[in-house]
């Protein structure tokens, strides 16, 4: 028995575990890096221990430091969260050797599922359906290419270790196999320290359906139904839902039984997820799903399962770790309603989903609750004022909506995202909103290729609404604060004897300079010259009028930046410094700059080399993903400014091209 838990993780999952542990009367210990000294999970825990500098290899991946922190604080159990050491069997054995309880499966179960090739062989032996493919030990490039031809294109190359979409490449033609293999092996080695891959048949209309399983140490195993995670980009989940749309009850039973059998086959204990690939071309069917892999931990998307079952999966983890039996049997479990989870990231969807950094000058969510039908839930590991750094995953929060029907849950999620306000960094809010408007998704016609097929439309930037620059101009000029009528002279601000007061406000938006002329209509009320768009400020905030239609709006200024939030999208304006030099800095088309902080993995050019527009010149590694930077035009490389292996910041120049002739 234990009464204190150490959480060997950070961010929203650490905060999530602490919340349930506290409700159950348990004390909690947070571990943190130097960069996370003031993080949310540190402030929530009863105690906190610093375990090293910001890099994960020097902090969150240090087994000995984590175990020493548990000993020093008297914690009797360690919860691994997800990621980091959660699926490392050596860590499990070290925890148990120290006399502590690991709140997860035994090391043997993790090893059985840790390598995809061995796991598939084990599942075949257990009678679980497996995708046709090559899962052998041989890794010679010619052998793998031969196996791909035998399987038949298209094929999917997958790093045998790890997950999260890293080390995966879809290959549709034999002539593309060699390059794809090299990329998958390099990414697998960088992310998991293992370059070995397997090759599988690619299902052309694939749906990613996973089953939540739970097992105790007394031999009881149940499944808590399915989640559909088909909305993915680059093999990373974006929006998840439960239950899966169009799931027949007999297919759910068959898939659940297969997942339970998979867990039994490896002596599983605790929370786990068995992931299946399903052929959605003719609807979900019993002979159309195959085992992909098993995640031997709690999943990021577990809240949608909690929403439809009304259960706290972290509470179940704690009870199982205490040696208790599962609280419910299979026939006692029920599905109640429908739920969605959207992952809110600091990333730029319009620039290929590049991870972003920045201080969260504003972070506001609508009011949320937990485990209630028709409720909204927000799991976040950051608060307003926190910094999104390049050291860790750029997730800001998970927004979860529950409703009696799929349509009701989707409407609730859409409204929640529209009401969410983030300032200080770019986010994927607009992309998430576009997904929720997608006709196919709304109809439940989902597969893993949906985002890829319609990516241009989903990431297209909408036209700026006419009221947005008016709001920005009002806030930039300071006329929105303090509210009119607050002092005896406020009503006279902008008043003129000889006619309407007029002010001109200069703003910059994505390289374009705007001149917004505002005419005063009365105390606290202005409109843009030549339009029917007005804005006013009262004690409740800002109100916009467009051709007689009135609605509330949100905008704020932070330093020399103004952000306007409209329908889930943040429009950012810079307030130009009138004393600054007129010439804009930057090399334009004569240079390649780092689009984010990262490591220069490879430099594919040298000084004096002639290059063509679109030719790959450098590979930048950020967030353990590789990003290829290409030539902006035809030209000749003038200078290499960054070397392979060097760390660069956002905006650092990597190389320059010789200037074009006049």
TrEMBL record:
<keyword id="KW-0092">Biotin</keyword>
<dbReference type="InterPro" id="IPR005482">
    <property type="entry name" value="Biotin_COase_C"/>
</dbReference>
<feature type="domain" description="Lipoyl-binding">
    <location>
        <begin position="582"/>
        <end position="658"/>
    </location>
</feature>
<dbReference type="InterPro" id="IPR048429">
    <property type="entry name" value="MCC_alpha_BT"/>
</dbReference>
<feature type="domain" description="ATP-grasp">
    <location>
        <begin position="120"/>
        <end position="322"/>
    </location>
</feature>
<dbReference type="GO" id="GO:0016874">
    <property type="term" value="F:ligase activity"/>
</dbReference>
<dbReference type="InterPro" id="IPR011764">
    <property type="entry name" value="Biotin_carboxylation_dom"/>
</dbReference>
<dbReference type="GO" id="GO:0046872">
    <property type="term" value="F:metal ion binding"/>
</dbReference>
<dbReference type="InterPro" id="IPR050856">
    <property type="entry name" value="Biotin_carboxylase_complex"/>
</dbReference>
<dbReference type="InterPro" id="IPR011761">
    <property type="entry name" value="ATP-grasp"/>
</dbReference>
<keyword id="KW-0809">Transit peptide</keyword>
<keyword id="KW-0436">Ligase</keyword>
<dbReference type="InterPro" id="IPR005479">
    <property type="entry name" value="CPAse_ATP-bd"/>
</dbReference>
<keyword id="KW-0067">ATP-binding</keyword>
<dbReference type="Pfam" id="PF02785">
    <property type="entry name" value="Biotin_carb_C"/>
</dbReference>
<protein>
    <submittedName>
        <fullName>3-methylcrotonyl-CoA carboxylase</fullName>
    </submittedName>
</protein>
<dbReference type="InterPro" id="IPR011054">
    <property type="entry name" value="Rudment_hybrid_motif"/>
</dbReference>
<keyword id="KW-0547">Nucleotide-binding</keyword>
<dbReference type="InterPro" id="IPR005481">
    <property type="entry name" value="BC-like_N"/>
</dbReference>
<dbReference type="InterPro" id="IPR016185">
    <property type="entry name" value="PreATP-grasp_dom_sf"/>
</dbReference>
<dbReference type="Pfam" id="PF02786">
    <property type="entry name" value="CPSase_L_D2"/>
</dbReference>
<dbReference type="Pfam" id="PF00289">
    <property type="entry name" value="Biotin_carb_N"/>
</dbReference>
<dbReference type="InterPro" id="IPR011053">
    <property type="entry name" value="Single_hybrid_motif"/>
</dbReference>
<dbReference type="GO" id="GO:0005524">
    <property type="term" value="F:ATP binding"/>
</dbReference>
<dbReference type="Pfam" id="PF00364">
    <property type="entry name" value="Biotin_lipoyl"/>
</dbReference>
<feature type="domain" description="Biotin carboxylation">
    <location>
        <begin position="1"/>
        <end position="456"/>
    </location>
</feature>
<dbReference type="InterPro" id="IPR000089">
    <property type="entry name" value="Biotin_lipoyl"/>
</dbReference>
<dbReference type="InterPro" id="IPR001882">
    <property type="entry name" value="Biotin_BS"/>
</dbReference>
<dbReference type="Pfam" id="PF21139">
    <property type="entry name" value="BT_MCC_alpha"/>
</dbReference>
